[in-house]
Structure formats: C-alpha cells, structure tokens
Amino acid sequence: MPAPREIEAKSALSKSGLSDYCVNCYVGCAHRCVYCYARFMQRFSGHQEPWGQFLDVKINAPEVLRGEVKRKKPGQVFVSSVCDAYQPAEIRYKVTRECLKILVDSGFHPSILTKSKLVTRDFDIMEGHANCQVGCTLTTMDEQLRFRIESGASPTRERIAALEEACLRGIKAWAFLGPFMPGLSDTDEALELLISAIAPLPLSHIVADKLNPKPGLWNDMLPFLKRYYPDQIEAYRQFFFDEKEKWAYRENLRLRLRSIAEAYGVADRLETVF
User: Fold this and answer.
1) What is the DSSP letter of 69?
2) Rounded CA gap, 236 and 241, in Å?
3) What's the rounded Cα separation, in Å, for the pair 125 and 37?
4) 253 HSE (CA, 13 A, CB side)
5) Cα–Cα dist 107/130, whole Å
6) Which is it for strands 13-15 and 56-58: parallel, antiparallel or unpaired?
7) Is 90 within 8 Å of 62 (Cβ atoms)?
8) In the chain, how long is the greatest CA-to-CA distance?
9) How confident is the model at residue 198 (pLDDT cuts 50, 70, 90)?
10) Which of 38, 102, 137, 153 is most buried per CB count within 10 Å?
11) Which pLDDT value is given to residue 159?
C-alpha cells in the first residue's frame, strides 16, 4: 500500500445516521476487509486505486474539531463510521487521539468501534470518563479465516484482550459480532467459539450483524471466493441476488445466534440488527 496522502478537511464533526455525530480522521482503510460496506467512499475520494489500497489522513482534523465543538451541541459521536480510527497510520499521526481528547474535554460522548488493539493506547484518555465507550468488531476465532477477510486488522484474540483491559479499567465496553460470512464464519461451531470467548466479560451490550450485500460488494467478493472458497460461489450468489434466500438466511442466523447466546448467558445483552 502506498504511503498515506496528507489532506486538509473543511469539517470534522458530521451529522450521522448511526449517532448524533461522527468523526472520520481518515479516508480509506488499510485493514482491507473483504466485506467492507464503506467502499462507496472511493467515488468521493478522487482515488483510482481499489478500496483498501489508498489512505488519506486529515492532518488538520483536531484543529477543525476544536472549533466545531464550541459551536455545536454536545452529543454522541461515533468514531468512526467509514474508516477505522485506529488503523496503522494512527500510530504515526495520532489524529484520532487528539480528536478524542477534544471530544472528552468538551463534554461530547465518543463511542469507538475498531478492529485494532491500538485503541488501548488511548485508554488513558477514556479512563474515568463515563461519557466514553469502546467497542471491538469480532468476526471469527479462526485466525486463518480472519487473516483472509481482514488482513490488516489485529487478530481477534488481541481485540478481545483490548475489551478485557477496557473493562478492568472501568471503561464501558461492548462487542460487535460480524458481519458473518455465510458458510465460513456463521457455522454453529464458529458462532459458539466467538460468543463463548466474550461471555465472561462484563460488556455493556453485544451487537450482531449479517454480511451486508451492498451494491458493488459482489465485484470484490467474487475474486476472493474464487481464490479461497470456490465451492461457496453459488451459495454466495444466491445470498446476494435471491431475495427469498436472503430473508431465510437472516432468520436462520438470528435464531441460531439467540440460541447460543442463551446457552452462554448473554442473550439479555445481545441485539441483532438485521
């Protein structure tokens, strides 16, 4: 992946359908998740490279945010909605860290969702602040599959360790399970391994989601399946393009998730969003 391009943003704190606001300090993402729903952002980026092969850093995001929090009403802020705030470039640039400080100090309520253990670096900012929460996306306990579907992200067990550390430090923590890959990470065994791994943690809540067959995703999913799982191609074709199959799959997955969550005593904290 080429070196990040440094750009300047006109705004940092944006309205969001996921929360009151969102903050995205990066355009693009080096985690290279095959299932990524945010690839639509490429057409607004000016990049010709495939999604996952470029990264822009909004180097002035903290400066812009510092002015915006003075003018806008405090509320919930999702960090981040169309990138990962803690991808590898954040080690160098620290723009997320600076924005997090500003949000906390200004009375906003940052809610982080990441696939990176790097988030633990900023627990010193969140610790002792009830207006903060941190979540980690967890897709599978199978490390070979994890590497194939999200090669730039931290291993799943490192993300679980990050959640455990957050809980120990009194930071509100939660887990996002999925998106589940049909026939790969959604088997009963795979779901049980994932849920059993987080069940002992005092998480505030657990959210689960299916794979979202957004327009354009199939064009990237097909080469991935041809390379690693050619026997799954027809099943995925039905999932993407057969509405009846899609609805049946959704209900089956919901029932199985609920059953396993009940077995591990976390059903009262589980929310399926599909």
Assistant:
1) T
2) 8
3) 29
4) 28
5) 10
6) unpaired
7) no
8) 55
9) very high
10) 153
11) 98
The mean pLDDT of the chain is 94
pTM score, whole prediction = 0.94
What letter does residue 197 receive in the DSSP assignment?
H
| Ramachandran class of 171: left when φ > 0, alpha when ψ lies in -120 to 50, beta otherwise | beta
- Could you give the CA distance from residue 246 to residue 240 in angstroms, rounded to a whole number? 7
**For residue 60, what are the contacts with CB-CB under 8 A and spacing of at least 6?**
8, 9
Query: Cα separation of 136 and 129, whole Å?
Result: 19
Cα separation, 94 vs 101, in Å, equals 11
**103: helix, strand or coil:** helix
Task: Give the DSSP H or E segment for 207.
Answer: strand 206-210
120: β partners: none
The phi, psi pair for 133, rounded to 5°, reads -150, 150
Residue showing tokens 């795979």: 190
Handedness of CA 58, 64, 66, 71 (dihedral sign): negative
pLDDT per residue as tens digits for the range 118-164: 999 999 999 999 999 999 999 999 999 999 999 999 999 999 999 99
Q: Which residues contact 94 (CB under 8 A, 6 or more apart)?
A: none
CA angle centred on 118, ends 114 and 121, rounded to 5°: 120
User: Does 254 score more than 70 pLDDT?
Assistant: yes
Q: Is the dihedral of CA 61, 66, 72, 77 positive or negative?
A: positive
